[in-house]
Automatic annotation (TrEMBL):
Binding-site residues for L-glutamate, renumbered to this chain: R7, L8, A9, P10, S11, E43, Y187, R205
EC code(s) of this entry: 6.1.1.-
Keywords assigned: Aminoacyl-tRNA synthetase, ATP-binding, Ligase, Metal-binding, Nucleotide-binding, Protein biosynthesis, Zinc
Organism domain of life: Bacteria
Short motif ('HIGH' region): ranges: 10-20
Alphabetical list of HAMAP family matching this protein: Glu_Q_tRNA_synth (MF_01428)
ATP-binding listed as a keyword: yes
Gene source species: Candidatus Polarisedimenticola svalbardensis
Protein known as: Glutamyl-Q tRNA(Asp) synthetase
Record GO biological process: glutamyl-tRNA aminoacylation; tRNA modification
Named cofactor requirement(s): Zn(2+)
EC main group: ligase
NCBIfam families: PRK05710.1-3, PRK05710.1-4
Length: 315
């Protein structure tokens, strides 16, 4: 049997917070517990958002936590030509079309309820443009390229934490962006090409990305690849109940290190967040390495509060 291949895929847009550390810990443990291969992929796709030095700091933090990898780091910024090639393949197969709508147009369209996740459901305004007209407008107008979703329903798959998703009766995702205004690949296309070419068989990440899995599965199918298994894990919230993000005030691994926390203390605190049913006997990295299974994680769309993480309480 082929070994499981998982990945750690941080975005170098700021220091890693405890929520990032939590999903990385579970992704890593799930692979290591089955003697699999961990690929390190630095998701520096969105160059204007990348902070200088952030990638190095994240790699250091992961090493400090004891989360190692076998391949990489592979930088997305070195792979733009791969994403372009995949885009051309989709284009030649007629799976994409140019879209001239602004974000404002999409938001204003009456039939555009917000899709879960960060994207607006596209109402399909530019889907039916004749090809001559589209070719002409592409030369002159600002545009993105969207993937034409032909599926009648959300693609069915079994999430390793949240169970069955998609299938008959569920709405398919709206046509989504694969190439942005500036000609670079979207997150969905880059991640799919990467997961496909790196032979990733298991993706474990925060459950804010659960709606992304449907889009990525459709791209896998269009590009002739086999989608990995997906497991989406709960997000960690700040003490105020707000989602931790690199923009919002969040507790970073750095801060805790600087406040004198040991890595095993942080690992213990993170594992405690899994709850009594999920974490029994798994209070050490070694135990995670040998016995962890993702089905020990319970889905919680409302997130898990990080109660003890403020550095000033660490003494
Ligand atoms: N780079 C994304 C993040 O740091 C993860 C994307 C993914 O796992 O597909 O949240």
């Amino acid at each position: 049997m082929r070994p499981v291949r998982g990945r750690l895929a941080p975005s170098p847009t700021g220091d890693m917070h405890v929520g990032n550390a939590f999903s990385a810990l579970l992704a890593w443990s799930s692979v290591r517990a089955r003697s699999g291969v961990v690929v390190m992929r630095m998701e520096d796709l969105d160059l204007p958002r990348v902070r200088p030095g952030s990638a190095e700091r994240i790699l250091e933090d992961l090493e400090w936590l004891g989360l190692d990898w076998d391949e990489g780091p592979i930088y997305q910024s070195d792979r733009f030509s791969r994403y372009d090639a995949a885009f051309m393949e989709l284009k030649q197969a007629g799976r994409v079309y140019p879209c001239f709508c602004s974000r404002k147009d999409v938001a204003a369209a009456a039939s555009a309820p917000q899709e879960p996740g960060d994207e607006l459901r596209y109402p399909g305004t530019c889907r039916g443009l004749g090809s001559d007209q589209a070719v002409e407008r592409v030369k002159r107008e600002r545009h993105v390229w969207r993937f034409r979703v032909e599926a009648p329903c959300g693609p069915p798959f079994r999430d390793l934490v949240y169970g069955n998703q998609g299938g008959p009766g569920t709405p398919p995702p709206g046509d989504f962006i694969v190439r942005r205004y500036n000609g670079t690949s979207s997150y969905h296309l880059a991640v799919t090409v990467d997961d496909m070419e790196m032979g990733i068989s298991e993706v474990v990440r925060g459950d804010d990305l659960l709606p992304s899995a449907a889009r990525q599965i459709l791209l896998f199918e269009a590009l002739g690849g086999e989608p990995p298994a997906y497991g989406h894990v709960p997000l960690i919230l700040g003490e105020d109940g707000a989602r931790m993000s690199k923009r919002h005030r969040s507790v970073t691994v750095r801060e805790l290190r600087e406040a004198g926390w040991s890595s095993s203390r942080l690992i213990d605190e993170l594992l405690e967040l899994l709850g009594p049913g999920g974490s029994s006997g798994l209070d050490r990295l070694d135990a995670m390495k040998s016995g962890f299974r993702l089905n020990q994680v319970k889905g919680r769309k409302d997130g898990i509060i990080w109660g003890s993480g403020a550095p000033d309480k660490s003494s």
